[in-house]
Automatic annotation (TrEMBL):
This is DegT/DnrJ/EryC1/StrS family aminotransferase. Pfam families: DegT_DnrJ_EryC1. SUPFAM superfamilies: PLP-dependent transferases. GO terms for molecular function: pyridoxal phosphate binding; transaminase activity. Belongs to the DegT/DnrJ/EryC1 family. InterPro entries: DegT/StrS_aminotransferase, PyrdxlP-dep_Trfase, PyrdxlP-dep_Trfase_major, PyrdxlP-dep_Trfase_small. Keywords: Aminotransferase, Pyridoxal phosphate, Transferase.
Length: 395
């Protein structure tokens, strides 16, 4: 019997319908909660947003949670509330989504990249040390795929140089590090509730912190930088004052209703993600050309992505792999084109290809396979078989 011929080389695709790499899982509970809000008095920010914030703060064991319209706007509010501003440098990873760097740019600060630790695929504390100057104000590490960055090492650097640490925890909601919820570490963190993330509110995000001032600042900036109850105007209930350039990043009760039900289902989602990951890990252990995601370090992550690295032994390179998977109707994504490859960071800040060798080497192999709780066993088998067949074909 000859080798199975993948669709890219003339065979039939394994699936007729496309399997995405990620996506939401919405049940009757979510629909009912949203309907209840629609039947009530508030559809913009109201009591359901308060309830959602309180639930998230309790779950993460932090003092404050400030809901906002996306992970991007959470990072924006967090960066400004943390006090980043013109003249500051903020060190972050190049292997991330652009919004991580915008934590600095939106605040008028300069994003400075440092190379990654290739195991965790996140900021390397030693590389960070090399980028520190008198202008460094903070760090924005990102927990890639939900795997914690080197939290202890990065906090050590922050202590040495008195830096604020703002975690981009957009990938990691629901995970723990040394038994603590990811995102609860000092000084503050931002989450995303985009549909491909661990829980969703459609679009949405959250700033979390134990710091009262940072939380208060984030809340006021979220809503026009307006003080709705200014001192000295007790007899003028309509009197609001604008203290600076704020935003309308108010999230709606409709979204918060969705989020509350998703929180109730978090354990179910984590369990299903873990089952799929275990199946992938086992299936790919024997394939020499695939580096499966790193084993967790002192943590129980809730993985947002299953990002493998396609290496020489596989028989084809990453681009060929991704295109071949797409031809089988299996969604595969690459997280991420390193930020220093983009015109924005080259033209504005002088970065170029070759600046961060570890991030670049990891990027060359990266491919995120489908991972979301709505995948059934057949979907998972399709991914496993397709990877196996591609490997057999090329080897
Ligand atoms: C690491 C990281 N940070 C920030 C964001 C921005 O989140 P959002 O899409 O909710 O604005 C994303 C989303 O893709 C992300 O992956």
């Amino acid at each position: 019997m000859g080798k199975h011929v993948p669709a890219r080389y003339g065979g039939d695709p394994i699936r007729e319908e496309v399997l995405g790499y990620g996506g939401q899982s919405i049940g009757d509970g979510e629909k009912q909660r949203v309907l209840d809000v629609l039947n009530g008095d508030y559809i913009t920010r109201g009591p359901t947003v308060d309830e959602f914030e309180n639930r998230v703060a309790d779950f993460l064991n932090v003092e404050h949670a400030v809901a906002t319209t996306s992970g991007t706007t959470a990072l924006h509010l967090a960066g400004e509330a943390a006090g980043f501003g013109p003249g500051d440098e903020v060190i972050t990873t190049p292997l991330t989504f652009v919004s991580t760097a915008h934590t600095a740019t939106y605040a008028g600060a300069e994003p400075v990249f440092a190379d990654i630790d290739p195991h965790r695929r996140a900021l390397d504390p030693d590389a960070v040390r090399k980028q520190i100057t008198d202008d460094t104000a903070g760090l924005v590490p990102m927990h890639y795929a939900g795997h914690p960055a080197d939290i202890e090492g990065l906090l050590e650097v922050a202590d040495e140089h008195d830096l604020t640490v703002l975690w981009d925890a957009c990938h990691g909601f629901g995970g723990t590090w040394r038994g603590e919820p990811l995102g609860s570490q000092r000084d503050l963190a931002a989450f995303s509730f985009h549909p491909v993330k661990n829980i969703t509110t459609g679009e949405g995000g959250m700033v979390v912190t134990d710091d009262d001032e940072i939380a208060e600042r984030a809340r006021q900036l979220r809503s026009f930088d307006m003080d709705y109850d200014p001192p000295g105007h007790e007899d003028e209930p309509w009197y609001q004052i604008v203290e600076g350039v704020g935003y309308n990043y108010n999230v709606t009760d409709i979204q918060a209703a969705l989020g509350l039900e998703q929180l109730d289902r978090l354990e179910e989602f984590k369990q299903r993600r873990d089952e799929i990951i275990a199946r992938y890990d086992e299936a790919f252990a024997e394939i020499s050309g695939i580096r499966t995601p790193p084993d967790p370090v002192e943590s129980d992550p809730m993985y947002h992505l299953y990002a493998v690295e396609i290496r020489d032994g596989f028989g084809c390179d990453r681009s060929e792999f991704v295109n071949a998977m797409h031809d089988e109707n299996i969604g595969v994504q690459v997280h991420y084109v390193p930020l220093h490859y983009h015109p924005l960071f080259q033209e504005e800040y002088g970065y170029e290809r070759g600046d961060f060798s570890d991030a670049e080497r990891v990027y060359e192999g990266l491919a995120s396979l489908p991972l979301f709780p709505g995948m059934n066993d057949r979907d998972v088998s399709d991914v496993v078989h397709t990877v196996d067949r591609l490997y057999s074909y090329h080897s």
